Amino acid sequence: MSHVCPECNRTFGTELALALHRDTCGRDEMQCTECGARFAEARATRDGWHYECPTEGCDGAGVGEQLYALNR
Predict the structure, then answer these.
(1) Which of 1, 55, 57, 70 could be stapled to 37 by a disulfide with Cβ–Cβ 3.0 to 4.6 Å?
(2) What pTM did the predictor assign?
(3) Among candidate residues 46, 23, 37, 47, the one with its CA nearest the CA of residue 68
(4) Range of the domain at 62
(5) What is the DSSP letter of 29?
(6) CA-to-CA distance for 30 and 64, rounded, in angstroms?
(7) In angstroms, how far is CA 64 from the centroid of its own chain?
């Protein structure tokens, strides 16, 4: 039986693996208003200062402009 995370739809082989994943799932998650993609904050910046959507072909950039932190 597989176990699916209700936040990100990732599948895990055990209930324990899912529980461990859920401890961090969705933290520091951002969304791009340009393309609608959701991603971890770390994927959107290299220097912690400038942010760009990591989705190929998307021009979304700037925290508070086209990129927003998702609060859970």
Answers:
(1) 55
(2) 0.62
(3) 37
(4) 3-69
(5) E
(6) 11
(7) 16
